[in-house]
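Why do we care about 3D structure at all? Because function follows from shape, and shape follows, mostly, from sequence. That is the central idea of this module. The next example makes it concrete: a single protein chain, its amino acid sequence, and then its structure expressed as tokens.
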Amino acid sequence: MKIFENILNPREIRRKLGLNQQEFWTQIGVTQSGGSRYESGRNMPKPVRELLRLVHVEQLDLTKVKKEDFEIINFMKEEHSDLYKSLKKAARAKKKEA
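And the structure:
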């Protein structure tokens, strides 16, 4: 299964979030008119789809993410996989509580 298959209809995602096109698309650096074209069926480039997924589906605030965060994550996955898995499990459990 491809990671981008989950984003079938950006209009549907936008409507579920209760955002207008301007609010939705500018959060990922796309103009309202460009977003409108994607919602009408124009092929969306992979980087745009990935940004859409991260910001609107995963609800990630990209302004808070730093390159160092990814370096730490990769280090933990490679050098301390048990700790990484334990922290991941704990984070998911906490998210379910909220």
